[in-house]
Amino acid sequence: MSTSSLAATLDVDLRPGTTPMLWVDDARDVVRWTAGHRDGLRAAVVEHGSLLVRGLGLQDVDDATAVFRRLATSLMTERETFAPRRVHADGVYSSSPWPAGEPMCMHHELSYALEFPGLMLFACLRAPTAGGATTVADSAAVLDALPAELVGRFEREGWLLVRNYNNEIGASIAEAFGTEDRMAVENYCRANAIDYEWRPDGGLRTRQRRKAVMRHPVTGRRCWFNQIAFLNEWTMVPEVREYLVDVYGADALPFTTCFGDGDPVDAGIVRLLGDTYEAHTVREPWRAGDLLLVDNVRTAHGRQPFAGPRDVVVAMADPVRVTNG
Question: Of 2, 141, 175, 226, which has the fewest Cβ atoms less than 10 A away?
């Protein structure tokens, strides 16, 4: 049966402006229900880019972990993280720590890595009192809406991520690479096309050039796939950026992005990217017990500001390995 035919077996609600949604009212055993509908759910994600499943009633991390493992081919261990997450189980994490009052920019998880998740899985165990939706945007539509000249340059050159690791801000070297051993870090960098430089103070500077446009591994559709905006210095709160420049210097910020030739990506381009994402963003407020599946190539995701406690657990699944040529 084709992907489209499998997807059609589910009655997905495709109202404009909201995340594609499937309502479930017969899942007394959520693990068994998920296993029985696995192929249809995965096909619907390929078809629509994302799918919110409501009515499963996921109660805790054990529920979420069991469902994630039924849906995924395999779960990933995160590497090159920017902010350490809490580990709930092998391959199951807390959502990224991010200030509740600030939106999280649209991005594709680990799109700066040569191995990234093809599928993102989210489970809401506790919904915030206001806001906090995990927003999604069709990256193929975003690509089509961006100026051809800008896309052409990024396709020719790729994009460059520059990181400066220290022991004060963001993930430490050990948290990002899973080890403090310099040789192991260097081996990882060489294996993953990352240029590295050890600093006199023991810090580490890395540079990695990546593709900005990716063909979907199943459909072949061209998608805007990167974190050019999310990891750019101009996405930071202005006061935070000014402080970091004052303390570390403009060339030693924890991270920023550039064109593939090293030219800076200025604030105007970051605003353009943000506006284009926003024009193609849909959202649905979380309810406790919800499950969200996101095709990590076809669909970018972000997060709204929120109030009140919010507990969303995450898994990165079905790794895709690409060449950087």
Answer: 2
pLDDT(1) > 70: no
């040529």: which residue's tokens?
325
| Residue 81 covered by a domain | yes
| Cβ proximity of 170 and 83 under 8 Å | yes
Angle of helix 61-71 relative to helix 38-48, nearest 10 degrees, comes to 80
| Structural domain count, the chain | 2
Q: Mean of the pLDDT values across residues 122-127? A: 98
The reply to whether 67 and 167 lie within a common domain is no
List, in order, residues 6 or more apart from 127 with CB less than 8 Å away. Answer: 285, 286, 287, 288, 290, 310
Q: Are residues 15 and 133 in the same domain?
A: yes
Q: Which residues have C-beta within 8 Å of that of residue 180, sequence separation ≥ 6?
A: 173, 174
Which H helix or E strand runs over 300? strand 299-303
Contacts of 179 (CB under 8 A, 6+ apart): 185
Q: Is the pTM of this model over 0.85?
A: yes
What pLDDT is attached to residue 251? Answer: 87
Dihedrals phi, psi of 251, to nearest 5 degrees: -95, 5
CA distance 249 to 150: 28
Closest CA to 307 of 53, 136, 185, 128: 128
Report how far residue 149's alpha carbon sits from residue 274's, in angstroms, rounded to the nearest whole number: 17
Residues linked to residue 223 through DSSP beta bridges, in sequence order: 214
Residue 95 CA from chain centroid, whole number = 10
Residues 24, 291: Cα–Cα separation, whole Å: 11
Other Cβ atoms within 10 Å of 262 Cβ, number: 11
pLDDT tens column, 29-62: 999 999 999 999 999 999 999 999 999 999 999 9
Residue 52 sits in which domain range? 3-140+283-316
Same domain, 227 and 117: no
Q: What is the pLDDT of residues 141-168, one digit of tens each?
A: 999 999 999 999 999 999 999 999 987 7
Beta bridge partners of 207: 162, 195
